[in-house]
Every structure is written in C-alpha cells, then in structure tokens.
Design a protein that fits this description.
The complex is a heterodimer of chains A (64) and B (211). With 64 residues, chain A is mostly beta strands. Chain A has one domain (2-59): Beta-grasp domain (Ubiquitin-like (UB roll)). Chain A is built from one helix and five strands; from the N terminus they run ββαβββ. Chain A has one helix at 16-22; strands at 2-3, 6-7, 30-34, 37-39, 54-59. A five-stranded mixed β-sheet of chain A has the order 2-1-5-3-4, with no helix packed on it. The mean pLDDT of chain A is 94. Chain B has helices at 5-16, 18-25, 36-48, 80-91, 109-112, 126-139, 187-205, and strands at 28-32, 52-56, 96-100, 118-121, 145-148, 161-165, 169-173. The relative contact order of chain B is 0.16. Classes of the chains: A mainly beta (64), B alpha/beta (211).
C-alpha cells in the first residue's frame, strides 16, 4: 500500500488501528484518509487494509 | 476618531484593491478555538475586512494565556469570545461577528461552521485537532480546513510551513514541536503559525488552493 506518498508493506487484512500501532501513532491524535475518504476514528479498529490502498495519515502535535 | 463604514471600507479598498476587497467582504470564516492561534488569526482576518467571522471558544481568559494570546490583563476572567469581540469591534465594527461561547464537539461542529467558506482549526490539544479535522472533513467535505500543528518553543521560524494534506486540509507549523514534550508555547512562533493560517485562509478566499 501507499502511505503518505511512500510504499509500505503491511500484513494483509490488518486494520487501521493495527497499522497505527505498528507505526507508533496515537490513534487519538491522527486523522486518516483512505482512498480519498476520511475514516472516522470509530472505524479504525474494523477498517481493513489491502495492498492497493492509498492512505494519508496526518499526525497532530499539541499547542495553540 | 471614528470612521464611518464607507470611510473604513474605502481605506481597505485603497490598500487591497477593489476586486480583492469585494471577495473578502463576502467571505465567511470560522475559527475553532480562540487561544494563541485563534485570537491572532481573528485579528488578522478582521484587519483584512473578512465579512463574517464565526468565533467559537468555551473558555475564559486566564493569566497563563497572556504570554501568547491576544488578550490583556483587564480581560482575565472574561469569556474569550467576548474579550475578542470587543477588540475586533475596535478594529472594524462593521463586520459581522458571530461569537459562540460553547465547547466544540462532534455533534455541534458541523452546525456551527455550516455556512463558512473556510474553517481554522485553532485548538490547543492534539486529540481535539484530530477530532475537529475528522468531523468537519466528514460532515462538511467541501469546506477547506486550515490547521496549526507544531509551533511550541523557539526553534527556527524557517522550519514553519504550510502543507496541503488530503484534498481540503492545510496544516501550518513545523509539525513536530509538541507541548507534550515539555516545550513551552511562546508568543513569536504561535503568532507566526497564526499568520500562516491567516495567509492560507486569504489565499483560499482569493481562489488560490496551493499553499
């Protein structure tokens, strides 16, 4: 799959939640778009990923 | 000295040009959070003469805000919406300000910002930034969001930039400097990030979609 413009090899059928854990992201601090559609946080644990998926992960940091 | 609506508008047209000012007159921008980012963004947009500003924050001005937020000692204890409204009225009393003193949550975000051309995410906490971004991109998919992420400390100003992410999300800041790492927020970089957000808002209102 592609993540933020780069190739990434994940395990087949892994969920967004698992991917975020693998990459060290806190699921509460990211926004995720899959194939051009925003994925609500509530669906991270059930949304499965496949080899042809294109993901954008935006990680926010605190302060304002 | 007090300027009439026409006198003040003419001064803006003289500086900005008639075509640009007409677009700004008709524009509507939402600001989610009126802390260091939001208060400074609001001041910029009021100076530009953006026709309608939706200003949302549930909080009151505290001593700990004065190092970076656009408030003064005499405003401590006052709701940020009202303190800022008074300042904006002093800059341009002829714009339409819509203050909402309430906490932004997933169930009210789309309602609050439904009629905005652009929304600024100006929260403090990273999880709140993520929540608002997710909610608005889902519920108001055609409305661009301009977010601030990474402006703590005193790192180089040259590391701060505006990136376009997803289709309609713009993220300003250095993306790294996190208050969670114990780096304090300081006025210059917070104001810089706010100015980057205000610049991106301006560009979007004038039809420029690239950072």
């Amino acid at each position: 799959m592609r993540i933020n413009g780069e190739d990434y090899t994940g395990s087949p059928g892994m969920t967004i939640q698992q991917l975020l854990q693998q990459r060290g992201h806190d699921p509460q601090r990211v926004a995720v778009e899959k194939n051009g559609q925003i994925v609500p946080r509530a669906r991270f644990a059930e949304e499965e990923l496949h080899a042809d998926d294109v993901l954008e992960i935006v990680q926010f940091v605190g302060g304002g | 000295m007090y300027l009439t609506k026409e006198e003040l508008h003419n001064a803006l047209v003289e500086r900005h040009g008639a075509d640009i000012q007409q677009k700004l007159d008709r524009a509507s921008v939402g600001i989610a959070g009126l802390g260091g980012l939001g208060s400074n963004i609001a001041v910029h947009l009021a100076r530009l003469g953006v026709g309608r500003l939706v200003l949302v924050d549930f909080d009151t001005v505290e001593v700990s805000n004065l190092n970076r937020q656009h408030y003064t000692m005499k405003e401590i204890g006052v709701p940020k919406t009202l303190a800022l409204l008074e300042q904006l009225e002093a800059i341009n009393p002829y714009l339409q300000y819509e203050p909402h003193t309430e906490r932004i949550i997933p169930t009210n975000a789309a309602r609050l910002f439904a009629d905005c051309d652009v929304v600024c995410e100006a929260f403090d906490r990273a999880d709140q930034k993520a929540m608002l971004t997710e909610t608005l991109l889902e519920r108001l998919p055609d409305t661009p969001i301009v977010s601030g992420s990474g402006m703590a400390g005193y790192g180089s100003a040259n590391l701060m930039r505006t990136e376009r992410r997803f289709g309609h999300l713009y993220v300003c800041g250095d993306g790294i400097s996190d208050i969670a790492d114990g780096i304090g927020l300081m006025a210059p970089r917070v104001a810089l990030c706010a100015a980057q957000q205000a610049t991106m808002v301006l560009r979007l209102l004038l039809g420029q979609t690239e950072p």
